[in-house]
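Please, is this right?
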Amino acid sequence: MIGSESSPVLILILILILILILILILMMTIRRRRAILLGVAMLCPRAPGAYAQAAPQISPQATASAPATTVHGRVEVMGAVVTGKIHHAAIPGTVVWLTPTPTAGAGVETAPAMPNSPATPPANPRLVQKNKSFEPHILVVPAGSLVEFPNRDPFFHNVFSLFEGKRFDLGLYEAGTSRMVRFDRPGISYIFCNIHPEMSAVVITLATPLYAIADRDGQVSLAGVPYGHYTLHVWSEGMGPENAQPLTREITIGENASSLGSIRVPEANGQHMAHKNKYGREYDEPTPNNSAYEQQH
């Protein structure tokens, strides 16, 4: 039989046990409700605009299929108009290309959506050395392209480029052999041979698929140009290797603005680009006993 003095202690212990049991029941109920709510949230679709502040802002121009058009232009030689009559000067080799220009709108900079697939380069881009010349004379390739330089002449060549763009010196290599050069960044590379001063070519490396080479009549056409703001870049052979930077101007392409207008370029002086050899000196006159010029059998 329990004494009257121990009764308050037992009652207190029972109260504490009851409180603990209630706390455990409450915690289990809360966990069960959390699990139910989490399961419902996973099954329900996310409401529009959820996490909008954490998600990056993407311009509609970059996600939607932007309208596009074909852009045309005409290359003209400076000073070709005389006595009100067009003087048919030969159109120098000219390349034009477009790069997007970001524009500010609603606090977000946007740029025209570029075509999904880049311009298709030649399967094996190459500058062939044949008949003491490079074929083709102008080659446009995407940045990162590996270009081959095969020697199809019956004598040695020494291909080099020391101007802006890709700098390299392939050294002497004989007929039937080849060398490779990777053009890893955008730029204009003037290509020469250290033996034959009449040999010249240009490799234009681009980071845009929107480019065109003018035809003999000076016409240029760029297909699939999305509407937007661009920088128009113009390189022409008449500029020469001493002016490595292309001419530029800002343009806007839209439904009622798809023309580049007249693109005026300097006339090419002479048949070949004036330049010095890879040592920065004038070329030596060829001599009959020079092995570089001898026919190889």
